[in-house]
Structure formats: structure tokens, C-alpha cells
């Protein structure tokens, strides 16, 4: 009777682990199986693609993708239609990373697939890169389906070419709020000053999520020195939505007099979340003359704000060599 090898015994144990009730054990087993590099191990990995848990399927997709096997492309591509968004996205990114093996299939899906397949094929094509990807993705910006347009925008962001700025800017006027939000996100990632003015205009968008994303993207340009972007973010601190105001406060990164005034005002915002992040921003910037106002915030009715104000005062005290934040406040109170 033939005896099994240590490698076969190890694979049998890992196969048992794939049947565990614990998700983390199944995920760990997938990583170990990939190292065995045998036909039996590969067949086991393919079975893991059908696991009941999205995290496990996503791990199996990622692991199989690293093997760069052409015969795996179709199996992974099926998960562009997976019921779980995390798995669909992982399949798209993995296929993009398998550019050489997957690109013919991706182009076919972009042309002939369902709307879900087209969306994620566009994302995958952006991740794959290449000259031909740009023209295909720009074409899909005119799709009748908003999901496909959104996928094409995201794909252009992954492609990372600045020539995508103008076509993506046009999508800031799209009928779909989700497409407009994605366009605002991608314009921040493309790092091209031509995007600043359209993003500022997007701060007037009726959808709060578009405005939020526009603020975040403008923060990338403000950080790079765009004064127009910085001023627009200051204006957004007055937005009607608390989350937009919160993001605007977080994106103020320059410790000048005007920024200081805006943050001090935000420290008295009607939303506790905005007040909390105003305290955080002041501590991050290390604006010493904010110390007395932060001391007042220690009496804020919201514990989150009190805790953040205390953190900011301690951070500034350490930064400037004071023995305690109380000494900092006392000295600044006298000097100011």
C-alpha cells in the first residue's frame, strides 16, 4: 500500500482547514496552499473561489492571480458578477494585475458583457494600463448606464494619465450623483492643476457626497501649494452638511492667520464632529495662540470634543517645550 508524502499530508491538513468554521483559518490555509505549487494545490485553490464567505473568495482570487496562470482568467472573471462588492472589486484589480493574460477577455467584456461586467472590466482595464486602455475607457464615459460610466471614470483614475482630466471633468455634470462623486475623486488623484477650478465648482453640487469628495480632492492641491484650493476649502467650512464641514476642517493644512480664524470659528460649530476635528486640526498645525480657545473647549458638552482639545493642548505643549499644557495656556494667555 503506497504511503503519502509529507507534502501530501500537509495539503490534506490545509484542505481540512478550508472546511473550518473560522474565516481566518480558511484565509491562512489559502496562503499556505499557494506555496505548495502542485496541480492538487492549484485545484484546491480553485475550489476556494466558491467559498461562502466574501473575504475568503477575495483572498482566493488574489492568491490565484499572483500565479499568473492563463487558465485562471476565466474563473476569476466570473467573480466580476459576484454578489459581494468587495469580491467584484478584488476580481477586477486582480485581472488588471494579470494584464498580459487577462486583457483580451477584459476588452471583450467591456464590449459585450453585462453592465456589471462592463463596470468592473473598466476598472480592471485601468489597473492593467497600456496605451489602448485609455481610448476604450474614454469611450465608455458615454455609456447609457451610470454604473458603466462610473467604472470607466474609476478605471481612468487607476490608469493615472493626466490626459484624462478633460474627459473626467465633463462627468462632474453627469446626471448620476455617484458618477459625479467618482469624477471628483479621480480628479484629485490625477494631480493636474486644470482640475482645481472644476472641483471648486463642484462644491456647489446639490449632492453632499459630491461636495465631500470635492473638498477631499481639493485638499490634495492645497497641500501642493494651490491657494485657490485652500480658499475654496475655507469656504466649504460653511457648508450646510456637517460631514462636508468636517472634511473641510481636516483639509486645512496651512497655519496662516486666515486658516486660524476659520478653525477657531469651527471650534464653535453646531456639530460636535466638526468641533472635534477643528480641535484636532489646531493641534496638528501647532497654532500656539489657539491654546486659550482649546482650553475653553475642555468644557465642551461633547466628550469627544473635550478629549480632542486635551490631546491638542498636550501635543502643542510637548512641541514647544512647555512642562504642561496648563503652563502653555498661562504663558500664551499673558503674551496674547
> Can you tell me the CATH superfamily of the domain at 255-336?
Leucine-rich Repeat Variant
Q: Biggest sheet: strands, sense, closure?
A: none
Low-confidence stretches: none
| CATH fold-level topology of the domain at 255-336 | Leucine-rich Repeat Variant
| Count of helix runs | 21
Mean pLDDT: 91
Structural notes for this entry:
By secondary structure, the protein is mainly alpha-helical. The protein has a domain at 255-336: Leucine-rich Repeat Variant (Alpha Horseshoe), CATH 1.25.10. The protein has helices spanning 6-17, 23-34, 39-48, 54-66, 73-77, 85-97, 99-112, 115-128, 131-140, 146-159, 165-170, 177-189, 196-202, 208-223, 227-236, 242-250, 257-266, 272-285, 291-297, 303-319, 325-335. Helix 8 runs antiparallel to helix 9 and helix 9 runs antiparallel to helix 10 (146-159). The longest helix has 17 residues, at 303-319. The mean pLDDT is 91.
Amino acid at each position: 500500500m503506497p504511503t503519502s508524502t509529507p507534502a501530501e499530508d500537509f495539503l490534506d491538513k490545509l484542505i481540512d482547514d478550508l472546511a473550518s468554521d473560522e474565516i481566518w483559518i480558511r484565509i491562512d490555509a489559502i496562503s499556505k496552499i499557494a506555496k505548495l505549487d502542485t496541480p492538487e494545490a492549484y485545484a484546491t485553490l480553485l475550489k476556494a473561489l466558491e467559498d461562502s464567505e466574501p473575504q475568503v473568495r477575495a483572498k482566493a482570487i488574489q492568491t490565484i492571480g499572483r500565479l499568473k496562470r492563463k487558465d485562471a482568467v476565466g474563473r476569476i472573471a466570473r467573480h466580476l458578477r459576484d454578489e459581494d462588492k468587495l469580491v467584484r472589486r478584488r476580481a477586477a484589480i486582480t485581472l488588471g494585475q494579470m494584464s498580459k493574460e487577462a486583457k483580451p477577455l477584459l476588452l471583450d467584456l467591456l464590449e459585450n458583457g453585462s453592465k456589471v461586467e462592463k463596470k468592473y472590466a473598466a476598472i480592471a482595464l485601468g489597473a492593467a494600463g497600456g496605451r489602448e486602455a485609455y481610448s476604450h475607457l474614454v469611450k465608455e464615459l458615454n455609456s447609457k448606464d451610470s454604473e458603466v460610466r462610473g467604472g470607466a471614470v474609476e478605471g481612468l483614475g487607476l490608469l493615472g494619465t493626466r490626459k484624462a482630466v478633460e474627459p473626467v471633468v465633463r462627468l462632474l455634470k453627469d446626471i448620476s450623483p455617484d458618477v459625479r462623486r467618482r469624477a471628483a475623486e479621480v480628479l484629485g488623484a490625477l494631480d493636474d492643476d486644470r482640475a482645481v477650478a472644476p472641483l471648486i465648482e463642484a462644491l456647489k453640487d446639490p449632492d453632499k457626497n459630491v461636495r465631500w469628495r470635492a473638498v477631499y480632492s481639493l485638499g490634495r492641491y492645497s497641500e501642493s501649494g494651490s491657494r485657490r484650493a485652500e480658499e475654496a476649502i475655507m469656504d466649504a467650512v460653511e457648508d450646510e452638511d456637517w460631514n462636508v464641514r468636517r472634511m473641510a476642517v481636516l483639509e486645512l493644512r496651512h497655519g496662516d492667520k486666515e486658516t486660524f480664524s476659520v478653525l477657531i470659528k469651527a471650534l464653535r460649530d453646531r456639530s460636535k464632529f466638526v468641533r472635534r476635528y477643528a480641535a484636532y486640526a489646531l493641534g496638528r498645525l501647532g497654532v500656539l495662540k489657539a491654546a486659550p480657545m482649546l482650553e475653553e473647549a475642555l468644557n465642551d458638552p461633547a466628550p469627544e470634543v473635550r478629549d480632542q482639545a486635551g490631546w491638542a493642548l498636550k501635543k502643542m505643549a510637548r512641541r514647544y517645550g512647555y512642562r504642561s499644557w496648563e503652563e502653555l495656556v498661562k504663558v500664551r494667555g499673558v503674551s496674547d
